Amino acid sequence: MSALTTAAPGAPVVELDLAELRHDPYPAYAQLRRSTPLAWVPSVGRHLLTRYDDIVHAEKLPEVFSSREEGSLLLRTVGPNLLREDDPEHRRLRAAAEPPTRPRQVRDLWAGTFERTAHELLDRIADRGEADLIADFAEPLVAANLALVLGLRTARAEDIADWSRAMMAGNSNYADDPDIWLRAEQATRAIEDAVAEAAEAARREPDGSVISSMVHAADPVSLTEIQNNVKVVIGGGVNEPRDVFGVGAWALLRRPEVLDRVLKDPASWKRVFEETARWISPIGMYPRQLTRDYEIAGVTLPAGSRVALVIASGNRDESVFERAEEFDIDRPHRPHLAFGGGPHFCMGAWVARHEVSALAWPLVFSRLKDLRLAEGAADRLDGWVFRGLTSLHVTWHTA
Ligand code: HEM
User: 262-267: long-range contacts (C-beta < 8 A, 24 or more apart)?
Assistant: First the structure.
């Protein structure tokens, strides 16, 4: 079934300006939820599905809402991979890659090194009294953690972060910029070499990592499949935990009374994590393609229709989350959509939860005394497909 690149008959058409979406997508989402919960948006080339219940409904029907979107930029950048496969292919790849990212493995295999890396990064900045916590701490931390979990022993955190940027630029290269393709190709070649080397080492000596797990999978996975899956993880495993860290820290620093309560009750870091991911979801939307005609949100979409599940909007749906635009760590528990749903539910959720809520935030707020937002800093939120702070300038007291 080839992808349809036009509106379904009868689908409302809504013009949205991509620059405005990047700046702040939430007013447009609120409007869509109210009046056109399924709308064809020409600048995005997809039908945007924006209500919580409709997104959950779609995620329960992966045989209708397929992850195999044809001609996607992700496929061009990475090649076939678990994120853009359906079952049973997806299940085979996921079963091979997932075990090292389960909660127990995170605790037993990775947590100790995650903590040491966080301390080392804080040691480097502790005497300075000021830093950009995104560039100087969160990004190198999550990149180093990702290299560890994947099993890329020789890759430096800077390499992982650079590769991640190059791949993400490729995935969103709607303008077809040749320089962006070139950088993405260089990054993918470098990842392929690093994975081939790591897979060879893990074949001789299993090390519990994601690459090792795929090399020794009961249902075999080829080297190309391992390489492509690692590319997807690098493309998506850096910015999301980095952005939850940044947005959550920023939200608390702007609400000293909430921060105070959290510091007195460390168990509440978990709630801070889930509320941050709901409030400003690091991944705003992802694509699906219909395998057959299907009616949703009052529109019958023909087979081949392209849909974007706008989870950032579902996470602000007022029918599910009261005062949804507010950051409120005390809100009644309702499952948010920030990690997706269905068979593709984020494989790195426990890695991200641990590195951010059990380690990064508690260590930063306990080691950097009297932490404050730097006066006059131009830190801002940016993006809609991926959204986070571009920087987080802070100051603190040094002894
Ligand atoms: C707060 C941090 C994170 C968020 C909000 C997040 C969000 C998501 C979402 C929404 C999806 C589903 C996309 C879709 O269905 O098209 C996903 C899938 C995935 N994520 Fe994450 N992610 C995070 C961190 C990570 C980390 C740290 C890793 C790696 C260790 C990771 C690895 C993956 C993988 C491999 C998939 C594909 C799973 C599959 O297709 O079965 N993620 N993530």
Answer: 262/329, 263/365, 266/362
